[in-house]
Write a structure and sequence with these properties.
This protein is mostly beta strands. The protein has one domain (9-131): Neuraminidase. Helix content is 0%, strand content 57%. It is globular, with a radius of gyration of 15 Å. The chain starts with 8 loop residues before the first strand and ends with a strand. The model has no long low-confidence stretch (mean pLDDT 94).
Length: 134
């Protein structure tokens, strides 16, 4: 099935849904091309482990949270950056790009590894690469 060229941008399907952008807002479609999550987010990432990270607001002051495949907000937008879940944890940043710190949350939104790192990556095989500056 090819999706009609009606979007300003489209990305790979993950977990059955594809992220698309139209008129500056992001949403998700299913493999038939039906919009299943409306165009209301300022940025999104793909679904991973049943959740997608979404940004509400502009790139400087907007906050990131997570939605499920029905579009329900499961973790309120509150982080300065959030990355997809991997092995049950998602990397988040608190603070701006230059001085913010990275940590990890679980699927309830609870911080399980405090944001103390200057850089962090996804978990893979039970480990994640992080950097710390003095």
């Amino acid at each position: 099935m090819a999706v009609k060229p009606e979007y300003d941008g489209a990305w790979d399907f993950k977990e059955g849904l594809g992220r698309v952008v139209k008129n500056g807002k992001w949403g998700f479609i299913d493999k038939t091309g039906k919009v299943v999550i409306d165009f209301k987010y300022d940025e999104t990432f793909e679904f991973s482990e049943g959740y997608a990270n979404v940004r509400v607001g502009d790139t400087k002051t907007g906050k990131w949270g997570f939605i499920d495949k029905t579009g329900k907000v499961v973790i309120e937008p509150q982080f300065d950056k959030a990355f997809p879940f991997s092995e049950g944890l998602a990397c988040i940043r608190v603070g701006d790009f230059k001085v913010g710190k990275f940590g990890y949350i679980d699927k309830s939104g609870k911080i399980v590894i405090n944001p103390i790192y200057t850089g962090a990556f996804w978990f893979n095989d039970g480990l994640a690469c992080v950097t710390a500056s003095p």
